[in-house]
Amino acid sequence: MRRWIIWITLVCFVTTQTAAVAGPFEEGTAAGQAANPVIRGTVNAPSASSTVPGYTSTPPETTYYGQPSLSGAANARLTACATATGDPVCEAQRGAMTSANTPREAISPYDPAVSAARAIAANPATTLEDIATYYSGCQVDSVATPATEDRVCRQYSGTSPYSCTRSLSVSVSRTSSCTPGNWFANAASGRTGLDVQCIPDRPASQQHFRVTDRGTPLTYFDLDMTTPLTFPRMVATLPRSGSWWWGSGQNGLWVADNQCVGDSCRLTAMVALEYRRVCTDGGGDSGLGDCALERPFLEVYGACPSGTQSGDNILPWWGWGGDISAFEASACYAPSATASGLIGYDVTGTVPGYFWIKDAQRPVVGWRVNPAYGSIPQMVLNYERPHTTVTETDRWDDQCPGLDAGGRCTVAGTARCVDGPATKEVNGASVSRDCWQYETTLACAQAAATDECAPLIAAGCAPAGTVCRQMNVATGICEITENTYTCPVPPGTTVTATNCPANVFCLAGNCFNTSYTNDADFARSMSLMEAAREAGVYLDTDNMQVFKGEGNHCRDRLFKNCCYSDSAGAGMTNQSLFGTGSRLVYDVLMNA
Is residue 496 within 8 Å of 475, Cβ to Cβ? Predict the structure, then answer.
């Protein structure tokens, strides 16, 4: 029976709270559904872009995103606005720049507006209402103002130097010679193609290529275009073709004559095996003949030094029935005064002699295709190395005012460079200029009216101190002197209000009670929602028990309160226990 009572109580409790919370939500949903038919009737355009004035998905400001500095974009915008007419944005920018660069006279401390403000600050009651009329229940006191006050004035002697600047800002724009990522240049021989990828500003020592077969990539490789290869070198392996079992080597792409001069690059690429078995028909029953391993390329050697001869120009002598004398085409030989194992004569007749010794190796200066190897596909690729062109645009911001003839200020000297020569980084590019900022000195004559101390002396003020604010280093004359005077002021009082109630405000004699009554429904609703949550967490469905908890006790003795030393539940938070619960009832409320 007890279980049924508990279940009925919980169902009623949760249902009541759910209905209370869901009521406003249901009302809002119903209102929205009722308004939908009316709203849909007015929305007949396929998209907002066709109805919103000036709508664009690519505003020019999107180019500003990700830039390290916006100075270049701002200068470019100002330059474009210099000739634009009728553009309200440009007109606003020009107005702001003109206002910022217009010289303004300093406001004197004895300007009428400043003097009026000082009078109000000295005795507000003479101009404003009594402060007591704005409060009710306050302690209002009248405090007498001092009989004197310190005032500061300046005296200018002769002319005063001023300076203005003319600053340079540089905007940088970049354009690529090709579309980054594209394979923009290619060469082909039959079904085989060679492409180079557009990677702007990649060094010439790491140019990226690929080999294709009817447009299908076979392999990729990087090539150093700064060191020309005088003899072909295999830079990438390719699948074998033909009768590979017939004693042939690895198939691959060979490169030679590769070089970049500035941004103009050229290379020769060939597809060939490391070696190929070539057989001549010797007749007979076998039909195989003589076979030899032939390389695809042969070296072209440089000339031998004077007095020597290359091995391919020396005809060996077969004498005395011994072995044939071997002369290498890659070596240079010099005549020997004594007998040697190398015997032969120069077929050109240039170097006389019968006995020879090896003198030096001949340098490889080129290459040629081995006729015995067979045909070799060749591809000559000419391309412009991908690079970025940086365009620099200068803009000078002249903050010096225009000087009229006979005006108060004149130019005291030629403009001098105060920043430069220097190299600065602008949007990732190094920009060098002889001067980034010029400074011009102006001499401005001071009129008699700029002597601010004369009115103070006439009012009977007594000098209290003098300090030089600007000294001419060349002449040692103080150009701006700041004087302090103690001046008498009319007697006056200042009204202060203290100990005012916090719940009353008065205006022009009308007082209002600013206190308010706390909303009791909020605390009640939050308590019920928390109780419902904890009931769901701590419900024991097996024993039908809610909020059973765990018994704990502590002692509060005369000299020691043990109830504050219990750390049970100290590491818990309501957030960590949502949906899990603990052995301690009410979560962290136990130790609250």
Answer: no
117-142 pLDDT tens trace: 777 776 666 666 565 556 566 777 77
Strands 331-335 and 192-197: unpaired
Residue partners of 106: CB distance under 8 A and separation at least 6: none
Give the CA-trace dihedral at 292, 294, 299, 300, to 10 degrees: 80
Distance between CA atoms of residues 242 and 304, nearest Å: 41
- Rounded to the nearest 5 percent, the helix, strand and coil shares of the chain are 25, 35, 40
Cα 256 from Cα 299, distance rounded (Å): 12
Query: Cα dist. 347→9, 264, 332, 353 in Å?
Result: 124, 44, 14, 11
* DSSP letter, residue 456: H
Cα(328)–Cα(359) distance, integer angstroms = 12
Is the peptide bond between 103 and the residue preceding it cis, with omega within 30 degrees of 0? no
- What is the C-alpha separation between 25 and 536, in angstroms, rounded? 23
Across all residues in the chain, what is the average pLDDT?
78
Q: How many CB atoms lie within 10 A of CB 236?
A: 19
**Neighbouring residues of 486: CB distance < 8 A, sequence distance ≥ 6:** 148, 149, 150, 151, 461, 462, 464
**Rounded Cα gap, residues 197 and 185, in angstroms:** 8
For residues 62-79, one letter each, b for 16 or more C-beta atoms within 10 angstroms of the residue's C-beta and e for the rest, the string is: eeeeeeeeebbbebeebe
CB pairs under 8 A, 24+ apart, for 460-469?
Answer: 460/487, 460/488, 461/151, 461/485, 461/486, 461/487, 461/488, 462/486, 462/487, 464/150, 469/154
Place of tokens 């603990």: 582
Q: What is the residue whose two structure tokens read 């062109």?
A: 389
24-42 exposure pattern, b = at least 16 Cβ within 10 A, e = fewer: eeeeeeeeeeeeeeeeeee
Q: Which helix (H) or strand (E) holds 279?
A: strand 276-280
Q: Is the pTM of this model over 0.85?
A: no
**311 contact partners, CB below 8 Å, separation of at least 6:** 327, 328, 329, 330, 331, 332, 333
**CA nearest to 297, candidates 220, 225, 381, 230:** 230
Residue 170 and residue 181 in contact, taking contact as beta carbons nearer than 8 Å:
no
| 16 pLDDT above the threshold of 60 | no
Q: Among 211-215, 239-243, 313-317, which stretch is predicted with the lowest mean pLDDT?
A: 239-243
Q: Tell which residue, 351, 357, 354, has the closest CA to residue 328.
A: 357
- Tallying the residues shown for the chain, one arrives at 592
Cα gap 178→185, rounded to integer Å: 10
What's the alpha-carbon Rg for the chain, to the nearest Å? 49
